[in-house]
Amino acid sequence: VLRTLSTSDDVEDRETEKGRLEEAYEKCDRDLDELIVQHYTELTTAIRTYQSITERITNSRNKIKQVKENLLSCKMLLHCKRDELRKLWIEGIEHKHVLNLLDEIENIKQVPQKLEQCMASKRYLNATDMLVSAVDSLEGPLLQVEGLSDLRLELHSKKMNMHLVLIDELHRHLYIKSTNRVGQRNKEKGRISSLVKDASPVPLVDVTNLSTPRKFLETSQFGTPGSSNMRETSLLEIKEDTELDPEENSTVFMGILIKGLAKLKKIPETVKAIQDRLEQELKQIVKRSTTQVADNGYQRGENLSQENQPR
């Protein structure tokens, strides 16, 4: 329009063009008004629908914004809860460990009394296990507990002297208990012969069937009949029976003593003590055996003299 008006040569052409344009605008306005009148209902509905859609979109945006804010808030709260739960979990583990330590301390405090009972009943393997475990705990997890220092020294001292008791028991069964069985058999045979008034001399004691440590190495007494080697019966298989007399079976009892000495790590000291006392103990065996034979012979002579049999 501006180009057309600016390129006109005179005012008349401009006015003519202006009038034509105004007429065209008026015609366009009339057509528009007629179309609005014809489609008023549809136009109103469209405008209302558009407004409704706009409001819904706006509300949805606000709700999404609120949801985002809520999610961020929940995320922060969950982080806080996670840290709190982790803290509670760590505290639970610490409390559980403390309770275990307190239970262990309570049990260790009872060790001296239980140890004394086991030693009195000759349950040396249980006593050794209990003592070694208690000392390891006192010198390990409970090392920083100052209140157990006296108990630690006491149990450590008992552990240092425990092997001496076991070695004495081992010597008693090696040299005294085994020879006592021979003497008892000799006395029983003497009593039986005196009851039947047998004037013959007391027969020699048969020692070939006695259970000695060397024969225990050759034929295991508590293995199967087919087992002919001590290697088939490991020292680990020897256990204490709390219901039976621990000294009833000397061989098993000596195995228990050796196992206890091994737990105390005193096997070298034990071997050295056995070597040092070997000659002395064998002399004592000869001395006791001589005394028993002399006493039995004297008693036999008294019985024969009373029966007027000088022979």
From TrEMBL:
UniProt xrefs under PANTHER family: EXOCYST COMPLEX COMPONENT 4 (PTHR14146:SF0)
Family (UniProt): Belongs to the SEC8 family.
Protein name as it appears in the record: Exocyst complex component Sec8
Gene Ontology cellular-component terms listed: exocyst; growth cone membrane; synapse
Phylogenetic classification of the source organism: Eukaryota, Metazoa, Chordata, Craniata, Vertebrata
Coiled-coil parts of chain: 18-70
Keywords of the record: Coiled coil, Exocytosis, Protein transport, Transport
Source organism per UniProt: Chordeiles acutipennis (Lesser nighthawk)
Segments forming domain Exocyst complex component Sec8 middle helical bundle: 246-296
Phosphoprotein is among the record's keywords: no
Function in brief: Component of the exocyst complex involved in the docking of exocytic vesicles with fusion sites on the plasma membrane.
Pfam families for the chain: Sec8_C, Sec8_N
Domain called Exocyst complex component Sec8 N-terminal: residue spans: 20-117
Coiled coil among keywords: yes
Xref: InterPro entries: Sec8/EXOC4 (IPR039682), Sec8_exocyst_N (IPR007191), Sec8_M (IPR048630)
Listed GO biological process terms: chemical synaptic transmission; Golgi to plasma membrane transport; protein targeting to membrane; protein transport; vesicle docking involved in exocytosis; vesicle tethering involved in exocytosis
